[in-house]
Amino acid sequence: MKDLKVVFRRLVLPYWKDYIPYFALAIFGTVLSAAGASASAYLVKPVLDKIFIAKDVQALHLLPYAIILVYAMKGVGKYIQVYYSALIGQDIIRRVRNRMLETLLSLDLSFFHRFRSGELISRNINDVGQIRSIVSTLLPELARQVLISLGLLGVVIYQSPKLAFIALVGMPLVVLPLRIIAKKLKKLSHRSQEKTSDITSRLTEIFNNIEVIKARNAEQYEHEKFARENMEYFRLNMKTVKTSQLTDPLMETIGAAGAALVIIVGGHQVINDQMTVGSFFSFLTALFMLYTPIKRITSIYNQLQNA
Questions:
Q1: Which segments of the chain have a pLDDT < 50?
Q2: Looking at residue 26, what is its pLDDT?
Q3: What are the C-alpha distances in Å from 10 to residues 3, 125, 138?
Q4: Domains recognised in the chain with CATH numbers
Q5: Residue 296: closest CA among 255, 268, 235, 258
Q6: How far apart are CA 89 and CA 23, in angstroms?
Q7: Cβ neighbours of 177 (radius 10 Å)
Q8: What is the pLDDT of residue 47?
Q9: What is the pLDDT of residues 114-141, one digit of tens each?
Q10: Would you say 152 and 289 are in contact if contact means Cβ atoms under 8 Å apart?
Q11: Which pLDDT score, from 0 to 100, does residue 297 have?
Q12: Lower CB count within 10 Å: N or C terminus of the chain?
């Protein structure tokens, strides 16, 4: 995460004052979306207890509107957050690209003799594009998923602290494997960026020297040379996919074990009238919803290492 802090310090902090109103709107949208997600899980309790068990007619007339309201909060909040986060990120990257080219144009010719043109193009397009995904997509989405997780965790603990402990006790077991996966992804990402630069440089050299290649009948030689580099890039990408997808089965297995224990213990509590049906299903809904943002957070963490 050290590299991420460097990116944040160098790219976001110098510009943040220019985007204060947009930051405020993005944060508002994030909080609104998280509140809607958490409230939707909590509403399962009054829907079951008041409407289907207590047969409360007044609740039947009011709760459907509450459901519409919380899902509207969730959707509108996400829209506001995504739009203004993208606006901030895209505009910062526009300014970074302009500044990068301005810096390059001010350098001596000796600099351009040391670096291939394809590598410089790759830096301006691909590397800056990776940074764009951090600023405009990954960091805002990470913040939203963390807030959703905290809200749902609050619902889970509120409904039953005992069941919450049973369901979440296995979560620390995934921390070490996730850290190992993240470190490996970071190394693969660096190699992938270097290979992207090599391929871009290779294509630039081919097209810039196409007359010489044609004159020497070297088309087959250049094609085979490029194909070897392209195959290395393909294998590198497949290693990245294989490594990044290890998190899903890990999270699914631990989540299923926790849910199974919750159903056994919670079922006994409902049967013995220690917990209402609505409370149990509200807990269960929040728990199942909680695994989605947790999985998303691990996925974003891997993508941050990659970027």
A1: none
A2: 94
A3: 11, 18, 17
A4: 2-306 (1.20.1560.10)
A5: 255
A6: 11
A7: 12
A8: 95
A9: 877 766 776 767 666 667 777 778 888 9
A10: yes
A11: 86
A12: N
Q: Which of these, 290, 282, 225, lies nearest to 46 by C-alpha position?
A: 282
Q: Per residue, what are the HEC states of the chain? A: CHHHHHHHHHHHCCCHHHHHHHHHHHHHHHHHHHHHHHHHHHCHHHHHHHHHHCCCHHHHHHHHHHHHHHHHHHHHHHHHHHHHHHHHHHHHHHHHHHHHHHHHHCCCHHHHHHCCHHHHHHHHHHHHHHHHHHHHHHHHHHHHHHHHHHHHHHHHHHHCHHHHHHHHCCHHHHHHHHHHHHHHHHHHHHHHHHHHHHHHHHHHHHHHCHHHHHHCCCHHHHHHHHHHHHHHHHHHHHHHHHHHCCHHHHHHHHHHHHHHHHHHHHHHHHHCCCCCHHHHHHHHHHHHHHHHHHHHHHHHHHHHHHC
Q: What integer pLDDT is reported at residue 1 of this predicted model?
A: 54
